[in-house]
Design brief:
198 residues, 10 helices, mainly alpha, globular
Length: 198
């Protein structure tokens, strides 16, 4: 799921118009650049629903009709329900965009710089995205011209190194949240069945 989301962001930012629209999204109050640093605290305090709500508002602007394709494929591949798959995608998106917003702000990148930064991730992501998700979403990662400034080159190098860690960290946190949610649901069902039997 996470490489597919990153791939969608790369694809969206592969044209000047798409990069400008993505930059506008990143600069909006909906995206919190500090979120990646406080995600553990947020999930630990039961803020998962807050993340889901934040991500739900961003999903339509980023994925459009692909949301159902992605969550449907995830549900089929993993065996989790469609609602849970949608929640996982919605939770992950604000974290990814928050990390990207922080990097763009630190490097003071404009739309062209963002386009070059994202284009440099194509090769890395092509090997990470599950072909079943690429096919379901109709995802294609076009090549983008090489970065032309030192700031973009440095940011691209940093993002290349960070992508595996971003994926691992978010996957671990979302897996923990899903396990916790499933356990709570199971305990609730057992309690309800016990109450019904008495």
């Amino acid at each position: 799921m996470l490489p597919a989301l990153l791939g969608t962001i790369v694809e969206k930012g592969s044209s000047p118009g798409g990069a400008s629209a993505l930059l506008n999204t990143l600069n909006s109050p909906q995206v919190d650049a500090n979120l990646p640093d406080k995600i553990g605290q947020l999930l630990g305090s039961g803020g998962g629903n807050q993340l889901v709500n934040a991500g739900s508002g961003l999903l339509s602007s980023l994925l459009g009709s692909r949301v159902n394709s992605l969550t449907g494929a995830l549900s089929s591949m993993s065996g989790i329900g469609g609602t849970a798959a949608n929640s996982l995608v919605a939770m992950a998106l604000p974290i990814i965009l928050g990390f990207l917003k922080k990097m763009v702000g630190e490097r003071n990148l404009n739309a062209n710089g963002l386009m070059s930064l994202l284009g440099n991730q194509t090769r890395t992501l092509q090997d990470e995205i599950d072909p079943r998700l690429s096919k379901a979403m109709g995802l294609s990662l076009p090549g983008v011209g090489q970065a032309t400034t030192e700031a973009v080159d440095t940011a691209a190098s940093g993002l290349n190194k960070a992508i595996p860690w971003i994926i691992l960290a978010i996957a671990g946190l979302l897996g923990w949240w899903l396990l916790r949610t499933c356990s709570a649901d199971k305990a609730r069902r057992v309690a309800e069945e016990t109450k019904s039997a008495t």
